[in-house]
Amino acid sequence: MARKKALSQELNPIIKTDYPDPDVIRVQDVYYMISTTMYFMPGGVILRSYDLCNWEIASYVFESLDDNANERLENESSNYAGGMWAASLRYHEGTFYVVFVSHFTQTTYLFTSKNINGPWEKRTIEGYYHDCSLLFDDDGRVFLTHGNFAIHLLELDEDLKGPKKGGIDKIIVEEKNDVILGYEGSHFYKINGKYYLFLIHWPKEMPGRRTEACFVADNIEGPYIGKDIFNDDRNYCGQGVAQGGIVDTPAGKWYAVMFQDSGAVGRMPVLVPMKFEEDFPVLGVDGKTPDKFNVGTSRPYYKYEPLYTSDSFIPENEEELKVLKKQWQWNHCPNNKLWTLLPEGGLQIKTGKLSTNLTHAQNCLTQRMMFPRCEAEVTVDATMIKDQDVVGLCALQGRYGYLAVTREGGNYYLIKVVNNDTEPMKIGGGGNYLPGDVVEKIRLQSPIVTLCLKAEFTDMQDRLDFFYLKGDKFVKVGESHKLIFGLDHFTGARFGLFIFSMRETGGSAVFKDFVYRYE
């Protein structure tokens, strides 16, 4: 697909895939955005842009967060719907700061670095602070806002190790309305001497739509006076645009980068212009999200690296057998002893544990699926799998679907498996899945086969179709499968390369010629 022209008008959503809970800053002429990555590793992805519209991956904050049994998918444990949530990204006196919580460990993490590319130093902050936002005040004091329904202001000690003894710790905003979701998603700023607290909530009269609110104070302790400031769905399926950071351009214009729920593809970032009227923020154009805009850039001919990639899995050299392209992330922490790039090309993955289904497969390598439609193709060499091993290409989500090769009694079969079990799709249900239903089974003449998945997300159709190469033509396998964004995983659907064993470990497979197509 051709790259975008340097001076073209850009279209919302600015990133057409799952980068939720964005927080954005500007350092000179460079914008950086961090997004929730939860249980995918490496984690804490940071994107870079020079125009707020086009983005590329700059770095990741950590390779693994806690490296515990849940993160490693040991036995039947998992970290679905857990891990890294809603980070705050700040730059202060030459240092980058990232603060976020993990809901499974009930821990607040602080990462710091002098360089956006790392290395990052990991620490913890005493206490647990949901959806926290970090503020360095002009007088040298440091604060967090955090919470749900009741939003707290907490003063930290000068070393950012925990609450300051005798410091401020109080509720500054409290939800008083009858809502589906109370105030949360704090983004806290000091602008021209005033304090601005941006929040989301979910009024009951808007059952499918988040809305954005803002509260303003002249003093950091308040009182904070505010209201809803943005209620728009871009005329897209009733899904609200809300929650994210604000940033100014070098020319002094202001923008908000927020996300929009978009069905199974996930929560996509949207750019909304902002201005101040009588020191209060006003979002959008006549209260609406513009479809087209041109922010301007200091680097008009810069070529951005796409957020997705095809891959031949050919290492740069013999020392690069454990180095993947930055667009790839593992589902949970990988077992690095069980995968490698082959010198001649190809990704080899071995099995080291028994798994009942796809969601417990270690070393599932993923990329985000793109809106409005995308497809992935890969050649699988299953020659070395064992009986009841399963190796293939999946759409990873709670309601997953995959096309795979398995072996039974020395014979190889192509199977199509879908999970239609909706019981675990509530939050906290992740990982407790049934094995899925084998809905198609085809005898193969060879253990080497090329697989293809195609996804259609337009208007939240969330349709997945399955194909394999037979001769010189791709043949569709069975009916379409409906993907669903559920609270069990809390992430958009991803293409995944996987292998797992149901009977005996030690089998292996090789993936070659991964092709990602997006339009």
Care to describe what's here?
- The protein is mainly beta and 519 residues long.
- Helix content is 0%, strand content 47%.
- The strands form 8 sheets. The chain has an 8-stranded antiparallel beta sheet with strand order 4-24-27-37-29-30-31-32, with no helix packed on it. Strands 25, 26, 28, 33, 34, 35, 36 and 38 form an 8-stranded antiparallel beta sheet that branches.
- The relative contact order is 0.14.
Terminal CA distance? 7 Å
Low-confidence stretches: 1-8
Principal-axes shape call: globular
How big a fraction of the residues is strand?
Answer: over 45%
Structural class: mainly beta
| Count of alpha/pi helices | 0
What's the arrangement of strands in the largest beta sheet? 4-24-27-37-29-30-31-32
Biggest β-sheet description: 8 strands, antiparallel
Radius of gyration from the CA trace? 23 Å
Q: Estimate the helix proportion, in percent.
A: under 10%
Mean of the pLDDT scores? 94
> How many beta-strand elements?
38
Compose a concise summary of this entry:
This protein has strands spanning 10-11, 23-27, 30-34, 40-41, 43-49, 56-62, 84-92, 95-102, 107-113, 121-125, 133-136, 142-146, 150-156, 169-174, 179-191, 194-203, 211-217, 225-230, 241-248, 254-261, 267-277, 280-283, 292-293, 329-331, 339-341, 347-350, 365-368, 373-381, 389-396, 401-408, 411-418, 437-443, 448-456, 463-470, 473-476, 481-482, 494-501, 508-518.
List the helices and strands and how they pair.
Layout: E1 10-11, E2 23-27, E3 30-34, E4 40-41, E5 43-49, E6 56-62, E7 84-92, E8 95-102, E9 107-113, E10 121-125, E11 133-136, E12 142-146, E13 150-156, E14 169-174, E15 179-191, E16 194-203, E17 211-217, E18 225-230, E19 241-248, E20 254-261, E21 267-277, E22 280-283, E23 292-293, E24 329-331, E25 339-341, E26 347-350, E27 365-368, E28 373-381, E29 389-396, E30 401-408, E31 411-418, E32 437-443, E33 448-456, E34 463-470, E35 473-476, E36 481-482, E37 494-501, E38 508-518
Antiparallel strand pairs: 1-23, 2-3, 3-5, 4-24, 5-6, 7-8, 8-9, 9-10, 11-12, 12-13, 13-14, 15-16, 16-17, 17-18, 19-20, 20-21, 21-22, 24-27, 25-26, 26-38, 27-37, 28-33, 28-38, 29-30, 29-37, 30-31, 31-32, 33-34, 34-35, 34-36
